[in-house]
Input
Amino acid sequence: MMQTERLRPYFLILFLVGVFALTVAVFWPFLKPLALAAVFAVVLQGLHQRISRFLGGWPSASALLTVIMSVVLILLPLSLIGVLVGNEARSLYLSLEQGGGQSALAGLFSSVDETISRIAPGLGGFSQDLSTNIDTYAKEALQWVTGHAGEIFSSISRLLLAFFVFFIALYYLLKDGKRVRQMLIELSPLSDREDAGVFDRLELAVNSTIRGSLVIALVQGILSTVGFLLFGVPNAILWGTVAAVAALIPGIGTALVFIPIVIFLFSVGATTPAVGLLIWGSFAVGLVDNLLGPKLIGRGMKLHPLLVLLSVLGGLIFFGPAGIFLGPLTLSLLFALLSIYADLSRAA
Output
């Protein structure tokens, strides 16, 4: 009997670990939509509170209306952009395959080659090989993208199930978020004050990361697309999307896309569009960081842009498309916990 009494705690712990592992296995297929729902619940909290006040504190209706507005204002436009980018990438690939891209690249590098030959006559003559090689690499890259695009949508039922779980989880996290938070605080071995600090800093980190780096990159991508459309750049939505990704690169940003396009326009004799696009990129797009950055980031954790970029790229590799949110979320959680650990170390 006494032997049984001594083994009881160990049996309970072993049983608890086994059930916990089984529960993790059950929920694992829904990790991405659940994590994304948590991120969106934090980001949409301000909108949800305003809607709740407008509806007189009706939690179910305010949560449902917030979800509907997020679909209309965020997910539908992003889905439309995804379709348009896919179509333009396919169009660009077909153009390169038929030789249209090679003639454009040849014109660009021929112009550069002539300039180099005038400055240093012995260094010219590389344009034909270089343009052909880049054309080949561009074809291969776009062929890989178009070849793998179908894999993203290959399992329609699984995609629809993920969306269903995401919206249901988002609804309940908005509706019962405070109760979920309190339950986690009670289950945590840390003190209530320390748990509250973890949640507060994590919320601050998510807001500063999503609203700061990613929203600014989105705004710069939209403005870049507008500029490309205004000045007649082909495949404007595709290059605007590339500019949005490039905006995450510290120290370079959208210049990585604008400068080659401006050079290309100059090389084909489109001087006015080239000058106009250069001015647009320098002012309309370039000033977004200075104007919107302080307002969006506020007093957040202000993660280094390089860390944000690596978290987005690593998140995309590890999580897939959801990694654009889950990567920065993981980084934010790490820094929030490190900050709590530093506070505990100083207190000890």
